Amino acid sequence: MRRTQRTLFNFLLSAMTCLLLISTSAPVFSKTDLQPTAIAPVHQSINQDATADWLAQGMMMDKATKRYEAVLSSKNVVPNAPSTSATGKVKAMLKGDRLMVQGSFADLSSPLRDYVADPVNPPNPKITSAAHIHRGNPDQNGPFQYALTVDLNKSGLGGKLSGMYPLTSEQLQALSEGKLYIDIHTQKNRAGELRGILQPA
User: Fold this and answer.
1) Is 102 among the domain residues?
2) To 10 degrees, the CA torsion angle through 138, 139, 144, 146?
3) Domains in the chain, number
4) Residue 28 falls inside a structural domain
5) Which site in 17, 33, 118, 172 is 20 to 30 Å from 138, CA atoms measured?
6) Category of 36 on φ-ψ map: left (φ > 0), alpha (ψ -120 to 50) or beta
7) What is the residue range of 123's domain?
8) Is the bond preceding residue 138 a cis peptide, omega within 30 degrees?
């Protein structure tokens, strides 16, 4: 009987101790903490998306991995900055000679330029989308290097871009010197609506 009472007492004592610990360590919420938060713009979530895709592609991050980023802005477009409220952001990772790019953009002034209906002169079959990587100085329009894959959202004026490319020694040098840039072309701004230089993150 005494043993049963002692076991019951110890159990109740343990339960009360647990309840006391939980009540003192529980966070205190104010009314503002319980308010719904605003949804972040699409290009603020690319860190998680990029990391997941890099891992899926087998690009494990280590000390040899170099990270880059580019803020896409109309102010960077050469020679004339178009009037637009469009924004964009790109993250990139370099491992060896492989560059993997992930990004997003929003609020374009018009749909993307269609390079089938509106090709460059002379036509370039490698330009398969309206988002590109170019090589050149920040104050110049440089030659096309790669077309990025574009996934538009329902509005057709925003979406995501991605790609993975082997870089030549010349392209690697351009990247290290801040001479690789991303640009997006639209029907209203055929020469470019957004542009950003890949820089070390």
Assistant:
1) yes
2) 20
3) 1
4) no
5) 118
6) beta
7) 42-200
8) no
The answer to whether 53 and 162 have CB atoms below 8 angstroms apart is: yes
CA 95 to chain CA centroid, nearest Å: 17
Tokens of 135: 């090589």
Q: Please state whether the predicted TM-score (pTM) of the whole model is above 0.70.
A: yes
Strand ranges of the sheet holding 159-166, from the earlier edge strand across to the other edge: 149-152, 159-166, 98-106, 87-95, 66-72, 199-200
pLDDT tens-digit map of 122-171 = 999 999 999 999 999 999 999 999 999 999 999 999 999 999 999 999 99
Following CA atoms 56, 60, 64, 66 in sequence, which dihedral angle do they give, to the nearest 10 degrees? 40
In a domain, 1, yes or no: no
User: In this structure, what CATH number is given to the domain that contains residue 75?
Assistant: 2.60.40
Sign of the CA dihedral running 55, 58, 62, 64? negative
| Residue 44 in tokens | 């603020």
Provide the pLDDT for residue 9.
52
Cα–Cα distance for residue pair 54/61, rounded to 1 Å: 8
For the chain (length 201 residues), average pLDDT per consecutive 10?
55 49 41 36 54 54 89 97 98 97 98 96 95 97 97 98 98 98 98 98 93
Q: Is 133 within the bounds of a domain?
A: yes
